[in-house]
Design goal:
The structure holds two protein chains of two kinds. Chain A is an all-alpha fold. Chain A contains five helices and no strands. Classes of the chains: A mainly alpha, B alpha+beta.
Chain lengths: ~160, ~625
């Protein structure tokens, strides 16, 4: 059992994911990075650019909510929550995503060119490279910032919600 | 022979490829010397056209001496350049890949791609590749990063350029230059693809057979598009090429049509008349719509009108002279001092200062465009009607004012006869729309009164009895080719005495054969130097001859003018009567619009003439063709 209301948790999961998406997408618009998590996710399912963004955004939010529950379970197991614990979780989460998730992406993304050979007719998407640096040198920093904000928001929420429960 | 590095080819030596969002100019030597991505008015990636040393270029050509033949593949915008050397023949095929929308839905595609196929047709030829992009109008010397197996990358902010090549390349004198050679034998081919993506991971171009498939898709796309052309009269090839050029200069995402693909190609070699034409002028919107409709391109015409209404809707009823492809007016003029300019024609300008001018004629142009649209379609939306009403009110209020005139001369405002005529045309078209039931709620009596006042004023002050001609300025004695539009827009009958004598005076004073200057070359237009004959005015001359029933003269003039096109059927803004050289920005949409309208008008008149002859009736000589 969670010590906070599940509905509130999901809502805050959506909010935190929204902030993360805002930072990532905003950095794209500002020309700081070409990393688009919704596009990377959605293009696994369809080459259609519009549809892939739609699917990608939906799945990205779903993943964000799932991670919010995972964060909650960790807070519960520690018996405490705070903004800085959330920040630490965000740090680990971001590092894991950049070092492991991004590294593994070319292996399971059906439309991404392999890491060690060129594009093929079915696999044309540019691979992200180490720490997604292929998508721009600011990409690791922006990704980390987005995940730190995500974790901090959830930690702060959980601290407030659990304290008031 | 390869051009010396600091020598500029004639403007007519270029051909254009594009994807209806951006365009590249390619010289007869296989060099891409102008390319702006992601859209026509973006900063250039290659601009050797404006600075041989600093601009950047991407060329593929034999290492041995050669002679060149060149053509577009049938009715497409795929360019084929054939180099014939002593040891063999090399064929270079250039295109920006395009495809039907369903292909984009089914495949990952980069935002933009230049695809180059190099093939040895006979013998054996050593081919050299030189790739030197210089983004930001030549300001940036990029560090091209090699990712083995993936190609060469230039990542700048949210943009990424990728070059993939089947010819081995290596860095040259600096990190921004790639070069390589390969020896090809008969039957061998190699592909090179340059792509651009923005804000997202790049889509890497696959070469080999997959590249060939994209080439075939592009050919199919252009064939299908050209096949929609309903014109079947004389000079069909020239008309279709003009239509394809208009399609290339269309920004498909908004429907806008830019005036030309380039900036600062000079109207006078070594002169200062160098302007940025990568914007959309309201000036010839009615003619553009008419050309699109006449050829059967209703979708493009509807998109263009939609863009037009959206563009002017933002700040109406005040109209700007020009807009960018999304209808905004952020076109402030700047000079690029670091570029030497085409054949030292300085300054190189980006943006266009004409945006701050006041031109009365654009009101008539926009209203006339809407009228052309209604003639071919169901009608106007409520918001379009509201907009037109406001434009009519503005015409009534402002027509007595002086303006800068159709040619955007940078001198004092004056009372231009053509501008007043276009005000008359605007009110006349609004009243016609009203009388035909397409436009409600206009103050018809006010519009009629102002239309009458305009005609009285034009006939009293815009015609010079001593000269026997309408004149450029009220109470003046100078001529201007824009006066041809009085007949074309239906303000005056082409066969009327005043128009006949005006055409005669224009031919005497501004004509060089079939070519027409837009105004006397020695007239003070506020700029040093002079300019050449004006392409679209020359085609207007053909149209007026046709409308006067002088079909033999019109046919001869059209034949002569078509002879000034370059080897692949393209026109610039101007033509030097002395040498036949093309001058000014290139290719120029409005010259091609003029060509289409002249050819279509002449073909229609000839058709009527043939029918009349078959019916045993008198010839049409001396009669007018119907006004547009």
């Amino acid at each position: 059992m969670l010590s906070v209301d599940l509905g509130s948790l999901l809502l805050w999961g959506v909010f935190a994911t929204g902030l993360l998406t805002l930072i990532m997408t905003g950095s794209q618009q500002l020309g700081w990075s070409r990393m688009s998590l919704p596009y990377l996710i959605g293009s696994m399912f369809t080459p259609h650019r519009g549809r892939s963004m739609l699917i990608g955004f939906a799945l990205h939010f779903a993943i964000g909510i799932v991670f919010a529950v995972l964060y909650a379970l960790l807070f519960e197991s520690w018996g405490r929550a705070s903004w800085w614990l959330g920040l630490l979780l965000g740090l680990v989460h971001g590092l894991f995503m950049l070092v492991v998730g991004i590294w593994a992406l070319p292996f399971f993304h059906p439309r991404m060119a392999g890491k060690h050979h060129g594009p093929t007719p079915t696999r044309q998407l540019e691979p992200p490279g180490f720490l997604a640096l292929n998508y721009g040198r600011r990409t690791p920093m922006i990704s980390m910032l987005a995940h730190l904000v995500y974790g901090t928001v959830l930690g702060a929420f959980y601290e407030l919600a659990a304290g008031g429960a | 022979m390869p051009a010396p590095p600091h020598d500029y080819p004639p403007i007519g030596d270029y051909a254009v490829i594009g994807d209806s969002a951006s365009a590249a100019l390619i010289s007869r030597d296989g060099a891409i010397e102008w390319l702006c991505w992601p859209r026509f008015d973006s900063p250039s990636l290659f601009a050797a056209l404006l600075d041989r040393r600093r601009g950047g270029a991407f060329w593929i050509r034999p290492t041995a001496p050669y002679r060149v033949e060149r053509r577009y593949l049938d009715t497409t915008c795929v360019l084929e350049t054939t180099f014939v050397t002593e040891t063999g023949t090399l064929r270079l095929t250039d295109l920006m890949s395009v495809a039907e929308p369903e292909v984009y839905d089914a495949q990952l595609r980069p935002d933009h791609e230049v695809l180059r196929e190099v093939r040895c047709d006979a013998g054996e030829v050593e081919v050299a590749v030189h790739f030197e992009p210089r983004p930001g109008y030549g300001r940036v010397q990029p560090a091209l990063q090699h990712r083995p197996g993936f190609g060469y990358f230039y990542n700048h902010r949210a943009e990424v350029l990728v070059l993939r090549s089947e010819i081995a390349l290596a860095h040259g004198e600096h990190a921004g230059l790639l070069a390589g050679t390969a020896r090809l034998r008969a039957g061998e081919r190699r592909y090179l693809a340059l792509t651009y993506d923005r804000q997202e991971p790049a889509v890497l171009p696959v070469l080999g057979d997959h590249a060939r498939a994209r080439l075939d898709e592009s050919l199919a796309y252009w064939h299908r598009w050209a096949a929609q052309c309903q014109y079947e009269g004389p000079h069909r090839d020239a008309v279709v090429r003009s239509a394809l050029t208009l399609k290339l200069l269309t920004y498909a995402r908004s429907g806008a049509i830019v005036a030309a693909a380039t900036t600062s190609l000079p109207e006078e070699i070594g002169g200062v008349r160098n302007w940025d034409y990568r914007y959309c002028w309201l000036r010839d919107s009615a003619f553009t719509l008419r050309a699109l409709f006449e050829l059967g391109y209703r979708e493009e015409a509807a998109a263009f009108l939609q863009w037009l209404m959206n563009a002017i809707g933002g700040r109406q009823p005040e109209l700007q002279v020009l807009y960018d492809v999304y209808g905004t007016t952020h076109t402030r003029e700047q000079e690029l001092d670091h570029l030497e300019g085409y054949r030292a024609s300085r300054p190189v300008r980006i943006g266009n200062g004409a945006e701050s001018q006041f031109q009365l004629d654009v009101y008539g142009e926009v209203i006339s465009a809407a009228y052309e649209f209604v003639k071919q379609n169901d009608g106007l939306t409520a918001s379009q009607q509201k907009l037109l009403r406001k434009l009519g009110e503005t015409v009534c209020t402002r027509w007595p004012e002086a303006d800068n005139g159709i040619w955007e001369v940078r001198s004092e405002r004056a009372h231009h006869t053509h501008s007043k005529v276009m005000c008359w045309v605007g009110l006349d078209r609004l009243l016609r729309l009203h009388e035909d039931g397409h436009l409600d709620g206009i103050p018809a009596d006010r519009f009629r009164k102002n239309r009458r006042m305009l005609r009285d004023e034009i006939e009293a002050r815009g015609y010079n009895d001593d000269l026997g001609s309408y004149v450029a300025l009220f109470d003046g004695d100078t001529l201007d080719a824009s006066l041809l539009l009085l007949a074309i827009h239906g303000y005056a009958e082409a066969g009327s005495e005043r128009i006949r004598s005006t055409l005669a005076r224009l031919r005497e004073h501004l004509g060089r054969g079939a070519l027409l200057y837009r105004y006397a070359p020695d007239r003070d237009d506020g700029l040093p130097g002079s300019e050449a004959a004006f392409g679209i005015c020359s085609f207007w001359g053909v149209e007026v001859l046709t409308r006067q029933g002088r079909l033999d003269d019109a046919r001869a003039a059209l034949d002569e003018l078509l002879g000034y096109a370059n080897d692949v059927g393209l026109f610039a803004e101007e033509i030097d009567p002395a040498t036949g050289a093309l001058l000014g920005n290139f290719p120029q949409a409005f010259t091609h619009v003029g060509l289409i309208n002249a050819a279509v008008t002449l073909a229609a008149a000839e058709g009527r003439h043939r029918e009349a002859t078959l019916d045993g009736e008198a010839t049409l000589d001396g009669e007018d063709a119907p006004a547009s």
